[in-house]
Design brief:
Two copies of one chain form a homodimer. Chain A is of the alpha/beta class. Chain A has helices at residues 22-27, 41-44, 47-57, 74-87, 98-110, 117-122, 185-203, 211-233, 238-250, 266-277, 281-296, 302-313, 321-338, 355-362, 376-385, and strands at residues 4-14, 32-37, 61-65, 91-96, 133-137, 149-154, 159-164, 172-175. In chain A, helix 8 (211-233) crosses helix 12 (302-313), helix 10 crosses helix 11 and helix 12 crosses helix 13 (321-338). Chain A starts with a strand and ends with a helix.
Chain lengths: 387, 387
């Protein structure tokens, strides 16, 4: 196990009705709030009204930034920063899924930065201070509700970049699974794929002696496999929605990766796809993942994939390692198919023309991946296998 | 899944050499420290010297409270409170295992309480404010390094009681597995049994729909089973020591029990044994656990025990549920035997005479246990089966 520093300061208020804690918690940070949300689903399901009522009753002033995009844009961040500065906002409250939360995080970070907000996306070391952030989660997927990262897109430049800062961890997050009852099937599927992908990024590491972390990763994967399809078929199944929601937070808050070598691989590949084609992040991940697994399977990685097959997919352990590994990869693919996610890039409108460019960009900081680092040629091969 | 509020504020500095962060971290809280430790093993293994050197180099004044007992006593707590008050201590630094940490916690809590320290053990609601606490852990067992609880004994009254407060969570804990290299075999065994017992207390709950938490509990159990014996045979095996150490913290910091009904059962029973006979806590737990499992096995609990057998002990799932459950319980007992832990109360000097009295005390607040609550008659039967 590698050395690590653990700090997960976000408080979580989990369960039905927990949105009631909002006013009291907000008041610990001030009385002026920027409410950040997306396309308006929170108005349809009543969440917006619940929140606004709580704020008004408690004399908390608020301003609004709505229309945050599924791949949130730097232009929207800039608007938010302006509102915060004009009105001396005390806390940025994101109400939505990962995109909304990521947007709120970068608004909060850019608030104290004198230059343009895009600078702190390109270079996180420019973040020195961050406005307090809180979230009310409406989608189990990115885990942004409990981590320190944010991903923002500059559409004009085809750039989708990740940034982060310890103070970007939300001060508190309200996780009420009933607010995900109205999440449509395709988004439930993409969110489940995203949680699984975060777990894979931690699980398929070169660090072999983090036994405990590996078993916990398998716990998250089994949870996704057990409940992803169920949440699609029975959207108001509280057991399924609550397990997926809590899995989304634990998959990426550090628990699975503390003590392990980290170098994400499928995420940086996918970020190029959605930077260029604005596709759904979870769909891109689900398309690439089995092809990436297949591509890096070799004598050095087969043990890990066999472990994955035995512990996650219940494949009997007494068999040829390669057979177990290939079965595990096939089962992963089948699972994504069972969620109704496309299996080919061509199905989401991606052709051959920009693959080379995207492959180069995905390794802009060097090789990606921990279990088996890959370069731009490898990425290109995986893209081509995914067409 | 039940509603829950999650907050685990303790920072953890994990790994070899991490004790170097101590002076810098302490300075965030002040410059006067009470150093609390036990029988002196930290002087033999060099840890005491490392810490004192760091404090002196950084002009941090310190006072000492040594000789904390394995079942820490209220008399020792009182001494610590006195030193803190006389010297206006800013932070209580526990260096040791759970006993030392528990003692430090209650000193820190009693510091601000005007009456006698025993009052806040008997009645945690009397704790209003707590001095900052930090720990350097030397034994993987109680998890006190990352939780809010403490257990203190009044030897004269044969009382061993648990108390707790959110601010009793250590501000930070240094977890360097190399400091557990010198832990003797019997203490390594008892510590492993303690971690497993904390996990069982969360796992065997009446809440059935916390799938994720149950899979994570199994991750901790598998870690203990994989490394307990190994750490005894190869005391300087870093992989074994680090996995056990991190498991000790995660088993009881809330991760496994958030969202589940909680009512501990084997711990309250064991606390009576060590209150009356001053036996090693982990040994008492290991003796009682298989007998408690056997006792509560019935048509309502067999599913859970079968799940335990399949997921933790790798027993094939296609078989009679009772056979799987009984095999799982037998394997649990065999595992404790393989750790060299006694299997009978008579082996640790406990006879029949006080069983009735201890049984009554263990249910002083009502029935204990979540999966199947038991009363004093049941406890007595389990005690008798353990003789």
């Amino acid at each position: 196990m590698l050395n690590f520093d653990y700090s997960i300061p976000t408080k979580v208020f989990f369960g039905k009705g927990k949105v009631s804690v909002l006013p009291e918690q907000i008041k610990e940070y001030g009385s002026k709030v920027l409410l950040v949300y997306g396309g308006g689903s929170i108005k349809r399901n009543g969440l917006y009204d619940d929140i606004v009522k709580g704020l008004k009753t408690n004399s908390i002033e608020f301003w609004e930034l709505s229309g945050v995009e599924p791949n949130p844009r730097i232009t929207t961040v800039r608007k938010g920063v302006e509102i915060c500065r004009e009105n001396k906002i005390d806390l940025v409250l994101a109400v939505g899924g990962g995109s909304t939360i990521d947007c709120a995080k970068v608004i909060a970070g850019a608030f104290y930065y004198e230059g343009d907000a895009w600078d702190i996306v390109k270079n996180p070391s420019k973040i020195s201070k961050v406005l307090p952030i809180a979230t009310v989660l409406t989608l189990a997927a990115t885990g942004s509700e409990m981590d320190v990262f944010a991903v923002i897109t500059d559409v004009d430049a085809n750039e989708k970049l990740g940034t982060g800062h310890p103070d970007m961890a939300p001060r508190f997050s309200v996780l009420d699974p009933t607010y995900t009852f109205s999440v449509p099937q395709n988004q439930t599927a993409a969110g489940t794929a995203d949680i699984m992908s975060h777990t894979f990024e931690a699980y398929f590491s070169s660090t072999k002696e983090a036994f405990l972390q590996d078993r916990m990763a398998e716990a998250i994967l089994k949870t996704c496999i057990n409940y992803g399809r169920k949440a699609m078929e029975e959207p108001e199944n509280y057991e399924a929605r609550s397990n997926l929601m809590w899995a989304s937070s634990l998959a990426i808050n550090g628990l699975l990766s503390f003590g392990k070598d980290k170098n994400w691989v499928v995420h940086p590949m996918e970020h190029e796809l959605s930077a260029y084609y604005d596709i759904t992040h979870g769909v891109g991940l689900a398309i690439l993942t089995p092809n990436w697994m297949k591509y890096i399977l070799d004598d050095n990685t087969v043990e890990k994939f066999a472990e994955f097959g035995v512990n996650v997919w219940d494949i009997p352990r007494d068999g040829d390692k390669y057979v177990i590994a290939n079965t595990a990869i096939a089962k992963t693919r089948e699972y994504f198919v069972s969620l109704g996610i496309p299996t080919k890039l061509s199905e989401v409108g991606i052709g051959e023309d920009k693959l080379e460019e995207m492959a180069k960009k995905s390794v802009r900081h060097g090789k990606i991946g921990s279990l088996k680092p890959i370069d731009h040629e490898d990425v290109l091969n995986i893209f081509k296998a995914s067409l």
